[in-house]
Write the structure tokens for this entry.
Amino acid sequence: MNQTKPILVQDKPLGGGVMPAIITPLVGKTQAAILDEVAAIIPKKPDLLEWRVDFFADIGDAQAVVATAQAIRQAAGGVPVLLTRRNVSEGGEKISIAEPAVVAMYAAACQARCVELIDYELSNDADDLHRLREVSAANGISMIMSYHNFQMTPDAATLDSKFAAAERLGADVAKVAVMPQNAQDVLALLAATDRARQTIGLPLISMSMGGIGSLSRIVGWVYGSAATFAVGKSSSAPGQIAIEELRSVLGIMRKAVNGG
């Protein structure tokens, strides 16, 4: 089996290199609500916290974003933090600021070094992607470049192109998340992940969403996905499994796949 590449955070493999790393979302609207989520999640020992800042009421105040990210890190006890503004066209919340302000918010977070990773969609303007790649790299922040389709699973060529685009544009991690219409779509996503593992040099995150897609959250690491998302307190996408249940199933799968 080709080796799945781990996601590196400050030159160390996320989750100690155990596949897949478990990411849990934070979706509170206020700093107090977010810190309540952190307090509930940290005892469950996630490998990474994803702060979905598009849920945050004060997203338009870059200083508030930085201050809240710093508070998350302080409460997280060493668990790294991923900052994500998910674009509404790719499943995110509607927000009150335009894209230049979003880019400025990300840049401020990178310059403050208050998170370890950022996520920005491949569908965004090329100049904005380049700007955030520059500022994240300059400050030692890893960058995920992502593609989400909440309506369908595109054809194989499109899936392959999304993984390849992330590498071409200089990402540290390539992410693809799609919605299946049937079980065959889940297999298509896993096959595309396996092809990307063999053809590009980046760590990968991939998933098929929804109920039937939850299978990919359990076995995706076998095909090359270095991380999976689980519910710590609140879900951020359809098909996420509670972290306790996911960890139990993953333990069984690792034992079986690795020969006991």
Observations:
- The mean pLDDT is 94.
- The CA atoms of residues 190 and 223 lie 6 Å apart.
